[in-house]
C-alpha cells in the first residue's frame, strides 16, 4: 500500500498491560519514524476525544499525559497535529455534557463525537491545502 496520508489516532486503549507513558511515547515515536522512513506520505497525529474516568483507566499513564506526548512528537517530528482533545476539553470547560458525545458513556464517540473529529480534520486540511 502506498497511502498519500496516514492518520494516527491511538491513545485511548493504552491499558496497564501496554505500559506507562514513557512506553507509549517510545511506541508512538517508533510508528511515526517507521512511516517517515518507509513511506512517502503525509502524517497527521490526532489527539483523542475525552474519556469518562472508569474501570479501564491505566494507573501507569493518564490520557492527559498521552495527549502531551502526541503534541510533543508532532512538534519534534514536524508532522501535522489534529488536536481534537483541545476541542473536547473546551466543550467540557464550557459545561457541555460531553458524555452525550460518547456512545458508550465512557470513551467511544457517538455520531456527534465523530463529527468533532471530522470538523477538526477538515479545518486542518483546509489550512494545509
> What ranges have pLDDT less than 50 throughout 5 or more consecutive residues?
none
Helix content: 40-55%
- Side by side, the strands of the main sheet go 1-2-3
Chain-averaged pLDDT: 92
Main sheet specs = 3 strands, parallel
Number of helices: 4
Shape: globular
> How many beta strands in the DSSP annotation?
3
How would you sum up this structure in a few lines?
This protein is mostly helical. 47% of the residues lie in helices and 9% in strands.
Give structural attributes:
129 residues, mainly alpha, three-stranded parallel β-sheet, 4 helices, 47% helix
Describe the structure.
There is one protein chain. The chain has helices at 21-38, 63-76, 84-93, 111-128; strands spanning 5-8, 42-46, 80-82. It contains four helices and three strands; from the N terminus they run βαβαβαα. α1 packs parallel to α2 (63-76). The mean pLDDT is 92. It has a three-stranded parallel β-sheet. With 129 residues, the protein is mostly helical. Helices cover 47% and strands 9% of the residues. The chain is globular and about 40 Å long.
